Amino acid sequence: MSEVAGDTRMVARQLDALQEQIRLLQRMVASQSAPLVGTVTEHPHITQVESILGGEPIIKGTRTSVRAIVEHWKFGDSPEDIAHKLPHLRLAHIFDALSYYDDHRDEIERYIALNRVPVDD
Question: Which class is domain 37-114?
Answer without folding.
Answer: mainly alpha
